[in-house]
Design a protein that fits this description.
mainly alpha; 3-stranded mixed sheet
Length: about 425
């Protein structure tokens, strides 16, 4: 105890002041913005492709120098205690930002891929609690899609504008978040359909949205990413909880994707897109270039624009000729299974408070156990907002319990039984 007090006494600033200085130091650290391909590359390539030509893609990344920011962050690390949980959380978050600066500095080199894999992993890694990899699961999803393929199963041909999505999300968000509702804007340059933060949600302008996107974007972007950031901003002692350091990406995307599944917002085409990205990452790691990936996504029915975006997001930080892969899209399925298993454990062991804590800010699952004592002491606040699907706990437990039952189903026996019935009555007709 004395040793901990000694370490805390070395702090000349309050922990809140340290957090605010970190936020100032990282305010311009936007990895996805800096490693994404220039928007004019997309326009040029698709313009040529529409005329039947395959344009060679060539560009240079703008150099960024964040060495001063890195020095400032390292300086903030030195007085932090290795025993105080609040300090440990702060150290881990600062180190994650330093890692991000190193990634930005290495854009365009193979080191960028190596650093990214440390954070996001690869498709070949075994899934948590299972004896198969993310790539195995992705291929299984694609196989299931093919087996379920039916004339009634088709992507929506309805096309809703980004303006309609913005209006809908804003209205629904105000009903939950009230005065803390973020601003919704249309932006043509983002790769994903949407990107959400505490105060702003960007929707890709000029994109054709389906009727499924309304619910998917609401539960994924607003009721997860924006909600956890807003709750984190209410944490006076740890304002960094409002920001998403890369080390929290797996949990954040896992929670957001889990929210889609548990609310019934995840349609088969969305699930297939996630699986295709993982297969695409594996292809790129094995040598596929942009043109290989573009053809791959086109072969699965994606249009030219979506195929370009899918291929280029896998090669962010690298070039069209391949060799440098950004594996971030690996975290969606990995995070989904990690969060799902966390919910199972929490409910099975009567640790519902652990799930509750998950919404208190942009956390990694490990942070929940690290900071548990601080929540119990009241040093950290309860989440200000909770998504509706979580507040309906009886329905949530019912869905998760049913998923456990389904895990034990013998599909070969099921296929045999219903297949024999089908053959029996077809032969009698």
């Amino acid at each position: 105890m004395k040793k901990m007090e000694f370490s805390l006494n070395k702090m000349k600033k309050s922990l809140r002041e340290v957090h605010l200085e970190v936020i100032e130091a990282v305010k311009d650290i936007r990895l996805l913005n800096y490693c994404s391909w220039p928007t004019e590359i997309e326009q040029s390539f698709l313009g040529a492709y529409a005329k039947g030509n395959i344009k060679k893609i060539s560009f240079d990344y703008e150099e960024r120098d964040f060495s001063e920011n890195k020095r400032a962050l390292k300086k903030l690390l030195s007085p932090l205690s290795s025993e105080n949980p609040l300090h440990i959380y702060t150290s881990k978050t600062i180190e994650s930002y330093i890692h991000t600066i190193d990634m930005i500095s290495s854009i365009g080199s193979s080191h960028f891929q190596e650093l990214g894999i440390e954070v996001y992993g690869t498709p070949s890694v075994l899934q948590f609690g299972r004896n198969f990899s993310h790539l195995d699961m992705a291929k299984k999803i694609l196989k299931i899609y093919d087996e379920f393929d039916h004339a009634y199963l088709k992507e929506s041909d309805l096309c809703f504008s980004s303006q309609l999505i913005v209006e809908d999300l804003k209205k629904r968000s105000q009903e939950v978040l009230g005065p803390d509702t973020p601003e919704f804007i249309e932006e043509p340059s983002i790769i994903s359909k949407a990107a959400a933060g505490m105060s702003r949600v960007r929707i890709r302008k000029g994109t054709c949205f389906s009727e499924y996107d309304f619910d998917q974007l609401f539960v994924h972007e607003v009721m997860t990413h924006s909600l956890t950031a807003i709750n984190g901003a209410a944490q006076e002692n740890l304002p960094l909880l409002a920001r998403g350091a890369p080390r929290t990406t797996k949990t954040q995307e896992g929670l957001a994707t889990f929210a889609e599944v548990i609310t019934g917002s995840m349609d088969i085409f969305r699930l297939r897109r996630l699986a295709l990205r993982i297969v695409g990452i594996d292809m790129a790691l094995k040598g596929a270039d942009f043109y290989d990936l573009f053809k791959f996504f086109m072969s699965y029915g994606q249009n030219e624009k979506e195929s370009f975006l899918s291929a280029s997001r896998i090669l962010r930080g690298g070039y069209a000729e391949g060799g440098i892969v950004f594996t971030k899209d690996n975290v969606y399925l990995e995070g989904l299974f990690m969060v799902h298993s966390f919910f199972l454990w929490s409910l099975h062991t009567s640790n519902l408070s652990c799930i509750h804590t998950l919404f208190s800010g942009r956390l990694d699952i490990e942070d929940i156990f690290l900071l548990k004592g601080q929540y119990e002491k009241g040093q950290l606040k309860e989440p200000k907002y909770l998504p509706q699907w979580y507040k309906q706990i009886n329905l949530l437990v019912g869905k998760i319990s049913f998923s456990l039952i389904l895990d034990n189903l013998n599909f070969e026996e099921i296929d045999s039984y219903y297949g024999s019935l089908q053959s029996k009555y077809q032969s009698e007709v």
